[in-house]
Design brief:
The complex is a heterodimer of chains A (113) and B (110). Chain A is mostly beta strands and 113 residues long. In chain A, 0% of the residues lie in helices and 50% in strands. Chain A has no helices and eleven strands. Chain A has strands at 4-7, 10-13, 19-25, 31-37, 43-51, 54-57, 64-66, 76-78, 87-94, 103-104, 108-112. In chain A, strand 9 (87-94) and strand 10 form a beta hairpin. The N and C termini of chain A lie far apart (36 Å). The model of chain A has no long low-confidence stretch (mean pLDDT 93). With 110 residues, chain B is mostly beta strands. Helix content of chain B is 0%, strand content 54%. Chain B has strands at residues 3-5, 10-14, 19-21, 24-26, 32-38, 44-50, 56-58, 64-68, 73-78, 87-94, 98-100, 104-109. In chain B, strands 2, 5, 6, 10, 11 and 12 form a six-stranded mixed beta sheet that branches. In chain B, strand 7 and strand 8 (64-68) form a beta hairpin. The termini of chain B are far apart. The interface between A and B is medium-sized, with 24 and 22 residues.
Chain lengths: 113, 110
């Protein structure tokens, strides 16, 4: 089955540690996205990538970093510089070009204490 | 700048009743419009989309939405709600990039 996988489902870290969230897709989509979801705030765009080896900052990129070395993979690193990292993180992809439908993974809930 | 508002934070309806969820957007041109549904702790599923053409669009699970340019609205409707429709619903627009509304939580009474 084609789709987007995010692992792990739940992630716990101590404050001051960097943590990397995985996002893999086998849909052959060109574009991939990372969103942060907090209660009552909808989804906010962290980073996005339209093609391999290229990515752009979204609205709340500070304290996060990404890489796009392969078309299928778009990992997100939450660094210790992110002041409030506890949230639900969603990865999405779309075919690219003039197709604007996004498909979402199941999400990773990160808790930092 | 783009923005999306969903005026209702939480709506409760009885099973079998009709439903309308409101969405208003701000964008200089006609954007691409979407409705997504999210069950607790899950990702988002696309319900329907509007790009151009007929302003009444049909989606999955019996949902439909109507684009009204004059009101900058894209309201989601369902004639008869089922208990399984209880979830969070997000309106989204794509103009320069994707922007999501804050969501409306739907509760369904038996």
């Amino acid at each position: 089955d084609g789709g987007i996988t995010q692992s792990p489902k739940y992630l716990f870290r101590k404050e001051g540690q960097n943590v990397t969230l995985s996002c893999e897709q086998n849909l052959n989509h060109d574009a991939m996205y990372w969103y942060r979801q907090d209660p009552g705030q909808g989804l906010r765009l962290i980073y996005y990538s339209q093609i391999v080896n290229d990515f752009q900052k979204g609205d709340i990129a500070e304290g996060y970093s990404v890489s796009r070395e392969k078309k299928e993979s778009f990992p997100l690193t939450v660094t210790s510089a992110q002041t409030n990292p506890t949230a639900f993180y969603l990865c999405a992809s779309r075919i690219g070009g003039n197709s604007y439908e996004q498909y979402f993974g199941p999400g990773t809930r990160l808790t930092v204490t | 700048a783009q923005s999306v508002t969903q005026p209702d934070i939480h709506i409760t309806v009885s099973e079998g009743a009709s439903l309308e969820l409101r969405c208003n957007y701000s964008y200089g041109a006609t954007p691409y419009l979407f409705w997504y549904v999210q069950s607790p702790g899950q990702g988002l599923q696309l319900l329907l989309k509007y790009f151009s053409g007929d302003t009444l669009v049909q989606g999955i699970k019996g949902f439909e939405a109507e684009f009204k340019r004059s009101q900058s609205s894209f309201n989601l409707r369902k004639p008869s709600v089922h208990w399984s429709d209880a979830a969070e619903y997000f309106c989204a627009v794509y103009g320069q990039n994707f922007v999501f509304g804050p969501g409306t939580r739907l509760s369904v009474l038996p």
